[in-house]
Predict the 3D structure of the following.
Amino acid sequence: MSKQSRIFEISRTILAITIALLIALVTILFVSEEPANALSTFLLGPLKSMRHFGNVLEMMIPLLFTGLAVSIMFSSAQFNLGAEGAFFLGGIASTFIAVKWALPNVIHPVIAILVGGLVGAVFCGIPAILKVKWNATELVSSLMLNYVALFFGLYIINYYLRDVNAGAMVSYKLAETSKLIKLIPKTRVHFGIIIAAIAVIAIFYFMYRTRWGYRIRLTGLNSSFARYSGIKTASVIILAQLLGGFVAGVGGSIEILGMYRRFSWQSLPGYGWDGIIVAILARNNPALIPVGAFFLAYLRIGADLMARTSDVQSEVVYIIQGVMIVLIAAESFMAQYRHKLVFKEARNRSV
């Protein structure tokens, strides 16, 4: 992507976010009897205390992993929605290791996270194989498999890991040796944020500095050209989905080991769907995933604080999300400006 194209995409995304925020603020002005308080809490609430800012960082961690997972899978032009199921099953797998296995302090979470990642990779690999072997639409197959993941995971919890004395369908308590250490006092920010930062750097290097990353991106841009160039696109598609599933599974494992005392999810947690929003905001660029994850987490926490301290419900954030996605995904949005940039770049090259 040329410099002009990058500038255009960044400008386009920023404008879409600005328009979405303005619409949300106007909505608040109309529906609230105390708009000043609501707006102040929504925009500045997460910055008013370390605990609230810690909530932003806590929510940012799973969004980083699912955003990275989705960006990898979407980069190969495969709209695999399995990050949600992979995240959930990764949490189940790490819970199994944390409850059933007795291991030393450092080794225990490492093994649990790796197992969760492998389970996530297998799960996201299924739609990829169905696509390559039988041309099954990955969008439909991955969407349906998410519900298979949900009910299979709940079966594992209910019949193999359930604490019958807890009064709810939850697992036994996680072993203390399996938990991730907390990093910031008076918050629940844990070591997973360090792992997430390493994952961002590693995925960016893989996608933009290795031949396999290049093959994934080229397959996504033009699979026919990639195939005629000698690239085995079927293998590339499967690799991208396996890697994306692994990252999502690792994210689910880290979320459980860092934030919970026991597994207690009764439904899909939704981080995989949020990861799609993050990937769209970042334009599938791993380097921009932290920005998208932080922005979405900040909005969510701000909206939650606003709902608790004013007469505006937190659902206002979904207005922002919807407008952003529509504008960013709309090809005709700022199309004339893009045409001018392309014309200017072509003219400069011909001079």
Remarks:
- The mean pLDDT is 90.
- The two ends are 21 Å apart (CA to CA).
- Residues 57 and 177 are 23 Å apart (CA to CA).
